[in-house]
Design a protein that fits this description.
The chain is of the alpha/beta class and 425 residues long. It has three domains: 160 residues, Glutamyl-tRNA reductase, N-terminal domain (Beta Polymerase, domain 2, 2-Layer Sandwich), CATH 3.30.460; 142 residues, NAD(P)-binding Rossmann-like Domain (Rossmann fold), CATH 3.40.50.720; 81 residues. The protein is built from 15 helices and ten strands. The longest helix has 64 residues. 37% of the residues are buried.
């Protein structure tokens, strides 16, 4: 048995290829059933996100895993094989396990350290289990991948710095105000950046979120996502004095907030600080606002510098995380190698014990009446002989297994099975 993985991601394929290969949630039961019926596939899992589509399988030895899994991807999505082949990567055994560990730990993500991929992999694991294509071998590999991801997050700071514009904006707000639980937030504009900012604010503890947008319906949609309140667009400036944090992401071609409007708001707030984050292009807030005391204004370039600095820091932390992954790969490989020879060891021990019992039963009547002590001695003597015979082959199988890749058959295992006629594994 061997672990195999085939797929493509944001590094190897453009979005127009990834979207053609992607599996929607409704397709998963049929796709997993089809994967399970591919030649040599014993267990399987499909991971499909906006940045990657990957198939992982436990396969029989001697099967061309790369060809089977690559063809499965093309055929299942009704795509010409030649159209996706240049974008595919194929990994087996140690490489496949290392790749899974890196994916789970967010070391292979577009943004290193982002937490979403672990949840997506756990969802793929649950779907494979629910559809009956996850067995004990793949379960062992994936459970270890989840534990490795937890260890990376616990022992490094890979997920602790802001690496997106909206996340950086919220982190700056926390630096100024500390807890956001009692802070009132107004988001002006209801685009994707505003959605992301609202999501991060909610995770950071903000509960009082106001949404203002020229289109009332869109403002209502965003407000419903996050339990926010819609503020009519014409009420934006009148409500400003009660707001602690303002995030602007509107498509307006002019300044929504001027130096004078912010100055009046600070006056009304009795000089309590107001934090303004302008992530719009073109900008929504007059840069002259930065000249006001008690006003803290950051635009998208300020935030991008923070993001770039944090990304550099994450790359350095990632090196430490890679060392953890390498350690865990070796640990799992050792466990899987032991697992590979265990059935043969158990079969050998059972076979020899069966021979021992058969021979003792045949010759025991010729020994006449024996005391209980003699009976125990006979049993111990014959077991000792069997153990001596088994010791050499078992030790050699374990030694060879420790030097082989997971899933590789060792010569001595094959020899022992033939010698003792143990049959097929």
């Amino acid at each position: 048995m061997k672990v195999a993985l085939a797929g493509l991601n944001h590094r190897t394929a453009p979005v127009e290829v990834r979207e053609q290969l992607a599996f929607s949630p409704g397709m998963m039961p049929t796709a997993l059933a089809s994967l399970h019926h591919q030649p040599g596939v014993q267990e399987g899992l499909i991971l499909s996100t906006c940045n990657r589509v990957e198939v992982t399988a436990i396969m029989d030895d001697g099967v061309d895993a790369g060809r089977v899994l690559s063809r499965f991807l093309a055929d299942t999505r009704n795509l010409p094989f030649d159209s996706i082949h240049p974008h595919l990567y194929v990994y087996q055994d140690a490489q496949a396990i290392r790749h899974l560990f890196r994916v789970a730990s967010s070391l292979d993500s577009m943004i290193v350290g982002e937490p979403q991929i672990l949840g997506q992999l756990k969802q793929a694991y649950a779907e494979a289990r629910e559809n009956g294509v996850l067995g004990s071998y793949l379960d062992t590999v994936l459970t270890r991948a989840f534990n490795v991801a937890k260890r990376v997050r616990t022992e490094t700071e890979i997920g602790q710095s802001a690496v997106s514009i909206s996340y950086a904006a919220v982190e700056l707000a926390r630096e100024i105000f500390g807890s956001l639980n009692r802070r009132k937030v107004m988001i002006i504009g209801a685009g994707k950046m505003s959605e992301a900012a609202a999501r991060h604010l909610q995770r950071a503890g903000a509960r009082d979120i106001l949404i203002s947008n020229r289109t009332h319906q869109r403002a209502q949609e965003v407000a419903e996502m996050f339990g926010g309140v819609v503020v009519p667009y014409e009420q934006t400036l009148p409500r400003l004095p009660e707001i602690d944090i303002v995030i602007t992401s509107s498509g307006a071609p002019h300044y929504i907030l001027t130096r004078e409007s912010v100055r009046r708001a600070i006056e009304a707030r009795r000089n309590q600080p107001i934090f303004l984050i302008d992530i719009a292009v073109p900008r929504n807030i007059d840069p002259a606002v930065n000249e006001l005391e008690h006003a803290f204004l950051y635009d998208i370039d300020d935030l991008q510098r923070i993001v770039n600095q944090n990304l550099l820091g994450r790359r350095e932390i990632a090196e430490e995380a890679e060392r953890i992954v390498d350690q865990e790969v070796e640990r799992l490989l050792a466990r899987l190698r032991s697992r590979d020879v265990t059935p043969t060891i158990v079969s050998l021990q059972e076979q020899l014990e069966s021979v021992r019992q058969e021979v003792v039963a045949r010759y025991r009547p010729k020994l006449g009446q024996l005391t209980s002590e003699q009976e125990r001695a006979l049993d111990a003597m014959t077991r000792g002989i069997i153990n001596k015979i088994a010791h050499g082959p078992i030790s050699e199988m374990r030694r060879q297994a420790s030097e082989q890749a997971a899933g590789e058959s060792t010569e001595v295992v094959s020899f022992v099975r033939r010698m003792f006629r143990l049959g097929d594994r």
